[in-house]
Write a structure and sequence with these properties.
six-stranded mixed beta sheet, alpha/beta
């Protein structure tokens, strides 16, 4: 139970220099009360061992604070969080998907943590794919927690048989190597026709966008010259394999296709290796990883960054303690622990060395430095639900005129982005 203090509390707090904008919290020696801080984390984001380890460590370092960590299901979480932000009994800290922050910020129900981000948390080093969607109208509402992104998973035996001794460093090498690998019964790459997250990276590499804001309004821009160049590269790469033109990477699951042993490459998060090896244990020791190549060898290609941010409801009754929880979870100690435990990319580029010994995660971390997120519109979820990008891709792969088809898809995106 949190202690309620008389006005004399302010004098005592001034003497010990612990009064904050969050109000008076329970202090050791002032009645022995406990402040319970409720934290919502998503299912499978962190192992139970990590959660319990963090809980014990945090409570030891913050006497008088008890963490109540409640694991949430992803299904229906959007409505649950939206309702919680309107109520006075909302949790104190909530994990959300990084691209979901804008829609929650639009409600006015989030705490602005810009000051802490700039002053205390080293926000300049945050991965852009986590930090950018958490920043709305110049205010940092979402604090990066962990990241994951796509890499190229490859069959080292097939690479060796083709005389390829090292992964490609740029797009030109990648296309040339993939063409060598695409021989006889072997696919150079399995790339489904509607893998729009991968397309997004190629579009960003060319300087294009899926959608952009113009004087307060959002509009689709897949028909820009830069975005069309990204689609053209996708078409060239997709042709070097037998991926379906009218389906995404889960139809059929691409890990199952790769597991047959006749596919040289696929684009996925490194965790897909578990599904590959489960389907075909004989591929153990024969999987390699490299970042998606960029237009030049100067840096890897841009990738969509998935992952989670942490938010604090504006109505929290425990602001000081909630900020302390966010600071701990996103700080170096627990970021290192989480990355090693879950094979995630830490939230800062400066922490990438902690995963250097994990081949897949290390490749992911190199790509994450070029990570991006989907457009920062609170209405973007409506675009993904309808997703005009997928049929646009299929049409182009089947020979439709790219600019005309892209314009139709862009117009649909613009319509969906109007609130």
């Amino acid at each position: 139970m949190k202690i309620r203090r008389t006005p004399a509390c302010s004098v005592a707090l001034a003497l010990v220099s612990v009064c904050t904008l969050g109000g008076c919290g329970a202090l050791p020696g002032f009645g022995g009360g406990t402040t319970k801080v409720t934290v919502w984390l998503m299912k499978d984001s962190a192992s139970d061992d990590f959660v319990q380890r963090f809980k014990r460590g945090f409570e030891k370092e913050h006497q008088g604070v008890e963490l109540d960590v409640r694991i949430q299901e992803w299904t229906g979480i959007g409505q649950k969080i939206a309702a919680a932000l309107e109520n006075n009994d909302a949790p104190d800290v909530i994990e959300v998907g990084n691209t979901q922050v804008p829609q929650y910020a639009a409600s006015g129900g989030l705490l602005d943590m810009t000051l802490e981000s700039l002053r205390d948390w080293g926000s300049d080093d945050w991965l852009p794919g986590l930090a950018q969607p958490g920043n709305v109208d110049g205010m940092q509402y979402g604090i990066p927690w962990y990241a994951a992104n796509r890499v190229v998973i490859y069959n080292t035996d097939l690479f060796g048989a083709a005389g390829i001794t090292k992964p490609p460093k740029d797009r030109a090498e990648w296309l040339a190597d993939t063409a060598k690998l695409n021989k006889g019964p072997d696919q150079g790459i399995y790339l489904a026709g509607q893998d729009w997250y991968t397309l997004a990276g190629f579009v960003w590499d060319e300087g294009g966008e899926l959608a952009q804001e113009d004087t307060g309004d959002w509009k689709g821009v897949l028909d820009s010259p830069a975005a069309l160049r990204g689609m053209e590269f996708y078409k060239q790469l997709q042709a070097l394999g037998d991926g379906p033109k009218n389906a995404d990477e889960e139809t059929p699951p691409q890990a199952g296709v790769f597991a047959r042993g006749k596919t040289a490459q696929m684009i996925a998060v490194p965790g897909a290796a578990k599904a590959i090896l489960k389907a075909n244990p004989h591929l153990a020791g024969k999987l390699g990883y490299f970042p998606i190549p960029g237009p030049t060898d100067a840096k890897p290609g841009a990738v969509f960054t998935g992952g989670s941010d942490l938010i604090i409801p504006r109505k929290t009754a425990h602001r000081t303690e909630a900020v302390q929880v966010v600071a701990a979870l996103t700080g170096e100690k627990w970021q290192t622990d989480l990355a090693m435990t879950m094979n995630y990319v830490p939230n800062k580029s400066t922490l990438a060395p902690v995963v250097a010994g994990q081949a897949g995660t290390a490749a992911m971390a190199r790509g994450a430095a070029q990570g991006r997120a989907t457009p920062n519109s609170p209405q973007w979820a409506a675009v993904e639900a309808d997703n005009p990008i997928k049929p646009y891709m299929t049409a182009v792969l089947n020979g439709a005129e790219p600019k005309k088809t892209a314009k139709a898809a862009s117009d649909r995106i613009t319509t969906l982005l109007f609130p």
